[in-house]
Amino acid sequence: MKELVEEIISDIDNIFYYDIETTNSYVVPTRDDPGLTFPYDDIKKGKIIETCVLFVDIRNSTRLSSTFSKDKAMLGKIYSSFIHSMVSIADEFGYVRNIVGDRIMVVFEPKDCIENALKCAILMNTVHQKLRNEYYKKSLFRIGIGIDYGEMLVLKTGIQKRNEERSEYKGLVWVGNTANIASKLTDLSSKSISEEMISVTYQDTKTISDLFRLQNPLDILLNKYSHVPPIYRLLPSTKTENVNTSQFLEKIKIEDNAVTFDGKKIQNLTKGYKSISTPAILISTNAYRKYRLEKVKIDFSGSIDRIEIKNGLFEYIYGGNLYFSEFLRNKK
Questions:
Q1: Between 285-293 and 113-134, two packed helices, what is the crossing angle to 10 degrees?
Q2: Residues near 26 by beta carbon (within 8 Å), at least 6 away in sequence
Q3: For residue 149, which of 50, 28, 14 has the smallest C-alpha distance?
Q4: Is residue 306 very low, low, confident or very high in pLDDT (cuts 50, 70, 90)?
Q5: Maximum mean pLDDT: which of 119-128, 211-220, 307-316
Q6: Can you say whether residue 115 is alpha, beta or left, with left for phi > 0 and alpha for psi between -120 and 50 degrees?
Q7: How far is 117 from 104, CA to CA, in rounded Å?
Q8: Which residues are CB-contacts of 331 (< 8 A; sequence separation ≥ 6)?
């Protein structure tokens, strides 16, 4: 083991010693792309690509496995049909660049990437519904799809063979937030999310001019507006705000022997829960902006709506249960 550890440390030293040289890519790189190198003792070459990434997987796979725990053949058919159908659709619009278990990663050519990513996602959801109605009636498993748009660094990585006995593995790694966000959106899709919420009632600081919409609040103090009843001049103003736990902890402080929220004295706290059911297709804010900017026109059923998440990673996202209705019509 000592020799193995020393060899690993030597390889890591080599990785950090040499620079990474990058070029922009306008097509989706492959493992054999000449612009990607896997050298040892030399500069490593990588590529920068700005495009859309999509992940799709089976959301309730644990329950699915439990349902068919005594029928492994049927479970195998479900997984095989899912992977086959999703990869076939992905190949029509983009390029499959990773499959781990039942999760599939799809990367799209930069040109028209958001249109192709959305068409791919909608057709995936449509075909899944069709197959579920015809083949998966007992399982009723759901799928989740996440899409993001942004820049990624593509590198060739792994282990290269140095002798006949040593195994070789080379693959592509997609560095950057884009792939991570698309994957996180997949985790959130087709899911019921219960979030702890705190209702904070605090003393709202408003000037007299705010309350009575006057240009000069001193006029009231000087009794120039005597028609305003005294009770309204002194009426305290309160405000209630619903926030999640992380937002609450960010704004709560102890100041002058008083507990304050965003600098305002707290009068009451109530804890509760908010439930959100997310749709099958989720889209990041970057991808949605790209969709609106390019004025993409796709004839689908359903709507893309804004969804408030506020889970520390996202403030809000977009999504919907979108499908192509012509493929789901009953046969006559």
A1: 110
A2: 49, 109, 110, 111
A3: 50
A4: very high
A5: 119-128
A6: alpha
A7: 13
A8: none
End-to-end CA distance of the chain: 68
- pLDDT at res. 234: 44
Euclidean distance between CA atoms 190 and 192, whole angstroms = 7
Check pLDDT > 80 for residue 54.
yes
Residue 171 has pLDDT above 70, yes or no: yes
Min mean pLDDT across 8-17, 76-85, 234-243 is at 234-243
Residue 49 CA to residue 30 CA, distance in Å, equals 12
Q: How far apart are CA 25 and CA 16, in angstroms?
A: 24
Q: Judging by beta carbons within 10 Å of its beta carbon (0-12, 13-18, 19+), is residue 202 exposed, middle or buried?
A: buried
Tokens representing 79 are: 């997984």
User: Distance (Å, rounded) from C-alpha 180 to C-alpha 182?
Assistant: 6
Q: Please give the Cα distance from 244 to 272 (Å, whole number).
A: 10
Higher pLDDT, 256 or 117: 117
Residue with token string 């304050």: 260
Q: Cβ(232)–Cβ(191) under 8 Å?
A: no
pLDDT beyond 80 at 146: yes
Tell me if the pTM is above 0.85: no
Distance CA 157, CA 141 (A): 35
Structure tokens that stand for 58 in this block: 């089976």
Instruction: Decide which of 3.30.70.1230, 2.60.120.430, 3.40.50.1980, 3.30.565.10 is the CATH code for 19-191+278-327.
Output: 3.30.70.1230
So what's the pLDDT on residue 232?
45
Give the pair of three-digit tokens for residue 27: 């097509």
pLDDT band at residue 268 under the 50/70/90 scheme: confident
Task: Count the Cβ atoms, other than its own, within 10 Å of residue 13.
Answer: 9
Which residues, 6+ apart, have CB-to-CB distance to 228 below 8 Å? 212, 220
* Domain coordinates in residue numbering, the chain: 19-191+278-327, 194-275
